[in-house]
Amino acid sequence: MSDVAPGLQPAPRIGRHQIRQRSPARTALWSLLTVSIYGFWWWWELNRQLRALGESVRPWEALGRVTLGWLVVGLALVLGWPWAAVALSVIPMASSLLSVLETTRRMAALQHATGAPVTVRVPIALGLAGVALVGAVAWFALSLLAVPVALLLGMVWPLVAMAFVVYVQAGQNGVVAGVES
Questions:
Q1: How confident is the model at residue 115, as a pLDDT?
Q2: Residues of 106-131 as b/e, b for ≥16 C-beta within 10 angstroms?
Q3: pLDDT of residue 1
Q4: Nearest-angstrom CA–CA distance, 33 and 27
Q5: 3 state DSSP class of 133
Q6: Which of 32, 94, 117, 154 is the most exposed place for a label (fewest CB within 10 A)?
């Protein structure tokens, strides 16, 4: 099964990289179903495509910013320090938001440079990512306290994370459409 958006053709190759549009909903769903493993690959691929389009992006650095900081949180959990994990989560949240800021800025700049309508607004992307990150940590903290609202929060933050993925992928599709025209 292809993850190219229905009704859209893959973009031509730029150098050795094929830049293509993806279905935002399918991208979000795969991220959810694979517990973010696909989401991490998608973030790397999104940045790789921006680099192929001429942006000065380091895909592995962008991926590291959204993943590596969580190792500290995981270590605190393994050591049996759940509240330290909650406190330390500020580090990967800030790092992840920095990656979102840089990537969406580059996407918007590329859309502007190609004359395509700018469909990626940095504040919206940061807001969606921030709510999803804070929601995940709040859900974990409330779960430690066995607060009944934790179940509701546990269902809401992944939906916000999916909205973020849909929003950014739709923006990337706009970048690709601008380059094609």
A1: 87
A2: bbbebbeebebebbbebeebbebbbb
A3: 46
A4: 10
A5: helix
A6: 117
CA distance 16 to 9: 18
User: Average pLDDT for consecutive 10-residue bins of the chain (181 residues)?
Assistant: 50 60 92 90 94 91 91 89 90 94 94 88 94 88 79 79 91 83 70
Residue 34 DSSP SS3 = coil
Domain assignment of residue 5, yes or no:
no
Asked whether residue 176 is domain-assigned, the answer is: yes
- The answer to whether 47 and 57 are in contact (CB under 8 A) is yes
Q: What pLDDT sits at residue 27? A: 92
Domain hosting residue 66, numbered range: 13-180
Phi, psi of 119, rounded to the nearest 5 degrees: -100, -10
CA angle 76, 143, 87 (to 5 degrees): 35
Number of domains in the chain: 1
Six token digits for residue 103: 């990537």
